Each structure stands twice: as structure tokens, then as C-alpha cells.
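Morning F.,

Quick status update on the modeling queue. The single chain you submitted on Monday has been processed. Sequence for confirmation:
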Amino acid sequence: MNLSSKKHPELPARDELLAFLAREREARADGKVGVREIARAFGLKGEHRLALKQMLASLAAEGVLEKRGKRLTRKGALPPVTLVDIVERDRDGELVAVPVEWNEEELGPPPRIHIRAPRRARPGEPLPGVGDRALARAEPDHDAGPKDPPYTGRVVKLLSRARHRVLGVLHIEANGGGRIVPIDKKQAGRELAVAAADIGESKHGDLVSVDLVGKTRFGAPRARIRESLGSVTNEKAVSLIALRAHDIPDVFRPEAIEESEKAKPATLQGREDWRDLPLVTIDPPDAKDHDDAVHATLDPAQDNPGGYILTVAIADVAHYVKPHTPLDRDALERGNSVYFPDRVVPMLPERISNDLCSLRALEDRPALAVRMRITAKGKKLDHRFHRVMMRSCAKLSYQQAQAAIDGKPDDATRPLLDSVLRPLYAAHEALRQARDLRAPLDLDLPERKILLKKDGTFDRVVLPPRLDAHRLIEEFMILANVAAAETLEEHRQQLIYRAHDEPSREKVTALSEFLGTIGVKLAKGQVLRPANFNAILSQMKGHEHENIVNEIILRTQAQAEYTNENYGHFGLNLRRYAHFTSPIRRYADLIVHRALIRALKLGEGALPETPAGELAEIAARISAAERRAMAAERETVDRLIAHHLADQIGARFEARISGVTKSGLFVRLSDTGADGFVPAATLGREYYAYDEAAHALTSRSGVSYRLADMVEVRLIEAAPIAGALRFEVVGGGGKRTPPPFRKGERGRDRPSGKKFRGRRQ
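C-alpha cells below.
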């Protein structure tokens, strides 16, 4: 389709438009080129601007362009700031990198990036090398040959050095020496040798950290034990594996500890005195730090009948953690706190996170607070930020607050019931009405929690109930985050947004094709809103396909991220959103606090002058840190449960199919949430074809195993160190569907006449 040909000759030609996008993307620090920039460059207004949007949509449908937020770029093009792994040196000794995040199924092999040598290296500054992870600025190399990397780039921040340290399990042999079996699946079979003199006090079966000390001409590479982390059978070692495997820093620099210990409590100077306002903290019962407190009261203003004044006060971390200090550098390196069943790796030292910044009951604490007026139906009328000194009147758990409202107050909540808790819940009811009208994405995502025994070993998995108290705090925090983003935009202040892009065209097309197989229509090409997904979820309530539809709609969504470019939050259905409410545990929130202090001239700790490119780099770093933490937390849970199940080989479990691939089924146990794999070869004597659109493995006779089906499985192998479980299906699933093969049909997925036993060729 070429809209520029006849009806709209003012539009740029296709090649001209693509050349403009490539040229502007390279020229701009943030790489942002969207409809506004294109229209301005080509002088398009009114109906011509509408025609431009249609032209861009046509190019996106053809797969030539893709949309990332408000940024348009060629399909498969890298963003201007990219997280990369340096993988090799070319024939000339130059470094070559590839992007860490790349969808090979949709885009093919990841593009290679030629890393230019730094122009000037500061004395003592480490240079990048093979195996390192870094942030890089990448741009297309128009002079590259057909076999050369299509991109050239430079490292702007080295995030982690290549690891010359290995984590593994020690096996002591009869001659007194030992061998190390690495825990990393990628190093499977690459054992290391340890001399008897280098074993020290480590014992057989210990989890150890070793340094590589060289290679011998024959035999395994040599290593020296640096640290013993205790028996690998002890669940307490499991979180240490995740920390080391993902390079999560868990020891603060001495300078950062010294800075935190020297910090003095904030005073009233430059702050409003809010210590008489009965703010309360409502958190999980085992929370050690409390960074948010809330309050609500009826609005006395005559122009807001039935409305409320909401107050959200957040710990003033920016008062203690100033830009470019040792504390700040450590916080940025960590990006966020990481939570394991047996420990927390905090973003800030305990002196800051659990003491000076924790909003403890009946103790004076500095805070950055926002006061918001809402109508009786939850619409925000206005808001204002304040830098204050507060004093929480009580520390409550979600369960305490809910029990009080449900008619079972205790000694702590009884005095607060009428004056504090009832107004909070009444204000939440108003916010609930506004939420229903906004219609954010409403997926049912239960969160499991692992409980440990007193000795730190696995006890059980629970599914904590979702209380109105949880929803109350959630809605108060969302409104405060929106207020922060609005204020910073109003003052034209740079910030880091929490953004969630709309689903990609490819994922929506795949969803539409799947829904078509169960008789649900989703028109291709329509502009989707969360309400569209909610309507489908509502339609499937109580239906046999309810679980699979929930699962696939979840997988259709993009991943939320931090960015200096605002393209809204699709899941929450909000035009602007920034994380403001948890600066103790998230670096993004600390940036937003500093930005507010700068914009509103609230005193010390303001965000210094920061170019958009630098904010983009920070956003990319903390987004990567968030994904790193999520992976470490997930793998730790997998290993803990695998430890727990290791002595239950042969036991049967109820499970749900959580993934379908050509090689087999991924299953999730109903009682513990443990994930495992069922190889296709164990499904029976028939050949099973993979139906990607239906998310199913189906045999020639029509027996089908489909995503979200319930099955009974038997545990046949457990690898606790890797967190891996292997099962076989012994019941359930196997629904009869029309055979996928027609008589005489031949094709890539059609067996060629021989008997197949489920093995994918």
C-alpha cells in the first residue's frame, strides 16, 4: 500500500520515510522518532497527518516497521542504548557483541555489533573483554560488508566482568584431591581439578566458590577453592547459588557502609511538621522496612461533596543517599532489593533501609508526601507534594487491618478503627469505582510464597489470600505514582517512567488465531485496550478453556520496563506512570524523588543536570537488574522445591500443563507450584505433532495434550542443584480431538510411515 501515490502526494515516499527514520534515530541521543517528529519534518498537518498514521500502520503490518512505545524503527532494529554480551573477537582482534534480549523466533539470529575501542581510557578503568556484559550505544554500520556485523557501537558502561570464578560442588577422591562439578548447566561436563593442598577445610559435598588457576596439557583445568558455602544439601546454600550465578552483589563497599554509619537523622529544617497526622503503615507481617504510610479523611471543601483527601507519605531516601556518592553507586549497581525465602539482599545498607528511612511507629521520620483530593467516585481533582517530618501512629499488617474492618479488631487496631481505618476503606471504595471505569488488565495471577522451618529448610508453599487491604494500598500507591509523573511532566523535568507497551502485532495475531480455534473472535488489526482482554476473560469464566485463555493472554503482554521515554502503561491503562513509592528498594523511585525535589525546589538531594542519554542508560541498567532479580528469585524457589522433592522419586502429583514445545510438555505442580518437564518420548508409542497455534501436542489418533490441561504426573528424576524436575504423565490430559493428519498427507510434521514412539526428529 502506497498512500503517497495519488490521494496524498504530500506524504514522503516509502524509501524516503525509511531513510529519514534511520538517519534521525542515529542523530538523536534518545533515538526517539515518532509520528510527531515525522509530521514536523515533512510539514504534515490535519488530514495529511492522519494519512501518515495510516501509512505507518501499513508498513508495520507488512513487517517493515515496528513500534516501541512512541518510537518507530525498522523491524528488528536495536534501540539506541542496548544491553549486550561481548561474545568474541573477530579476525582483527576487535570485540563483537550481541544483544542480551532478542526474540529469535520472530526476528531470527541476533545481530552482531562491532564494539569500537574506547577513545580514551581513564587510568585504572577496566577495558571490556570477551564474556563481559555492558550497556552499549549501537547504530547501523552502513559501510559493513555482507559478512561484517551490521551494527557498530561503543561501551558506555561495563556492568559485569567475565567470571573467572566458578561455583560448584566438591567431590573428594581417594587420593585426597578433588573435582568440582559446576552448577551452571552451560558448564555441564566441564569438571575442574583441585589439588589436595587447595581443598583446605572444605568437605565432600560442599558448595564451593573456586578460582581458575590454569590449564594442564592433559586432564581437567585446575582450580583453587576460595570460599566454602556449606553443604549443598542445606537449603540455606540455595540462595547463594542464585546470587553467584547471576552476579548479584551482596556485599557493600566499605566506603558505602562508612557513609551509612556516619549518617545523622534528619531534622525539621526545611520540612513541614506533619507529626500529628495519624499516618499508618500497612505491610506484610514479616516486613523489616516500611517505606510508605497512608491516611484518608473526608474533604471539607464544598466543591467536592462526598470526596476525600488522601495522603501518601514515602520515606525520604534522597535525604541520605546523594547522587554520585558511594551509597548511590552501590544502589545503582544493585538496582533493586532481591527477595529470597531465606534472606533479603537490600539495595541499601540496613542502617539506611531498616533504620533511618524505615517509617517506624511512633518515631520521627523524614518523608516526601503527596496530598491528593478525589471525588466520591475516585477521580483525582488535584494533588500537591510536600517534604515533611512525619510520625507513623501504628505499624499494621494487611491481616490486622482487614480483620479490624471485618469486625475483629485487636488491641492495636481498635483505637484506630473509626478515626483511621474506616476512612481509608471508604476512600478505597471511591478509588475502586474509578478503577472499574478505567478498566485495567484484570488477570488472575496468584502469588505463591514459600515458608521455611526454623532451621531454614523447606516447610510448605502457601497461597496467601488477596485481601481488600492489599487492594487499598495498591490503589493508593498507583494514584501517588500517577501524581508524581504528572508533576514532573508539568515542570518539564526529566524522569524515569515505569512503562508497559501494548502487545506486539505478532503476539496479538497469534492470540487471535488461537482464540479462533475455540470459537472466540478477536478481529485482527483492531486497536486493543485492556478492556478487550477483560471481555474475553469474562466470557471464558467457568468455561473449559478458562485456564488456557488466561495463560495465553498473559503471555501476549509485553514486559514492563523503566525508560526515560513515556509511552504509557498498557496494563494499568494509564497515560503516564512513574515509580515513586518504594525508594528503599528500587533505584527508579529514588530517581523520581530526586527529580521532584529539583522540580519543586524542595532542598538538598535534587537530581543533578542529567542528559536524556544518561537517563536512558540508567533506565536500561535498572531494567536489566530487575530481570536479573526475578530470574534469581525464580531459580531459588525451583531449587528449594527440587531439594524438597528429591527423596520423593516415584510420587504422583496433580499438575497443569504450563508450556508446550516440540520436545515435550512443561508442567506446574498444583500443590507447590514447582515446574518440571515431560519429554515427548514418554507420552506413549504414538508420534505427537506440535500444533503451535493450538499450543498442543497431538497424536495421529487425536490424543492431545494442550496448554493449561490438568494431568497427573509421576516424578522420575530430580536435580536439586539445577532446580530441575523430570516427570512422566500417568493420567489426565490426553483429550480426544480430530486427528491432525489426513490420509495420504505428507509434510514436515507428518511421520513417514515408520512407527514413531513420541520422539521428535
